[in-house]
Amino acid sequence: MIERALLFIILLRVISGSIEITAAALMFKFNDLEKAFYINSLLALVGPFILIVTTGIALHGLTEKVSLVRMICLFTGIFLILFSLKSK
Questions:
Q1: Which of 86, 75, 61, 63 is nearest to 8 (CA)?
Q2: Where are the domains positioned within the chain?
Q3: CB 68 within 8 Å of CB 83
Q4: Using one digit for the tens of pLDDT, what is the confidence trace for 3-54?
Q5: Rounded to 5, what percent of the chain is helix, strand, coil?
Q6: What pLDDT band is residue 83 in, cutting at 50, 70 and 90?
Q7: How far is CA 86 from CA 11, 45, 52, 81, in A?
Q8: Got the DSSP string for 37-51?
Q9: Quick one: which H or E segment has residue 55?
Q10: Predicted TM-score (pTM) of this structure
């Protein structure tokens, strides 16, 4: 039997992948660089959200197995990755 946390992570990743494929299809359909740029900008919002939510679900499922210090380090690392993407 599959754990609920794992099932939610899998479903979120399938949804995220479907959004990416749909975006690529829309870019191909519109065949316009400006619209492709706009669609790609919207995808930049989806990726970090999925990363944070799936990590949170995984950590919630592993609460008893992962120490608080390791959780803080992990979320700090995620924050630094997102911060580095937004900085110049």
A1: 61
A2: 4-86
A3: no
A4: 899 999 999 999 999 999 999 999 999 999 999 999 999 998 888 889 889 9
A5: 85, 0, 15
A6: confident
A7: 27, 12, 16, 9
A8: HHHHHHHHHHHHHHH
A9: helix 33-61
A10: 0.75
